[in-house]
Design goal:
Layout: H1 3-39, H2 46-68, H3 76-98, H4 103-116, H5 120-138, H6 144-186, E1 198-199, E2 205-206, H7 208-215, H8 227-250
Antiparallel strand pairs: 1-2
Helix pairs in contact: 1-2, 1-3, 2-3, 3-4, 3-5, 4-5, 4-6, 5-6
Amino acid sequence: MPAKQWKSELEAAQLGYLPLIVNALLGVQILSAVRDPIVIGLDLPLELIAINIVLIAVMTALAVWVRIKDIPGHLSSKIIMFAVLCAGAKAIASIAVQAEPLPFYMAVLMLSLSLCFLSQKHMLIAAGVITVAWAMVTAFTLTRGEMVSTFFAMLIGFALGVEGLRRRILSLIEVFELKNRVETLESILPMCAGCKKTRNDAGNWINIENYIEDNQAGLQVSHGMCPDCYKAAYGTYLERRNTERKTQDTE
């Protein structure tokens, strides 16, 4: 498959998943906000409450926007990138408030990137931004051992995500190739070499005029005669008439 067509197919597939991914990440934000008072307690820091409110509001607006707005395909990965970074910001904020490494939490976050993106480049960028932000924040709240163990957990999650994304892309390649084959076969119009009738989807042989009118709404076939056919049908008569006229003119 040509690179340009492959890119277009991936963008279309990513765009199709866009509302689902944004709504899923919104649900994660809401569940995470509900989790905070259960795990941390009712005396939540005002900073964490503010972060929850802002992120949920932003994600809700984003979810509504992608539903009502006609999003270009090339922007889908960027929108998902923004939504993923919002989820990463909430995870890092929870670690900072609880002063706990939460390695499983971060590993799952890295693994989930493979479910959000259909591009290894965007997945790598998102993972890199989240990792750098995590390192900058946790350097003041976690011990070196906790940071190292969490980083390895994130690395394992990311590696599993890369493998998962690779398999998703391989599956999409097979689907796209089968789609192209079907479209190619459907574009072939069977036609009788003798009477020029064509076969429709029901397997019946009909005149090409009827086939065109049945498959093109509002189109009617009008018959005429091209110059070659006109000459073949009336050429002898026209030559005889021209000869007679010349003879009359000479006399």
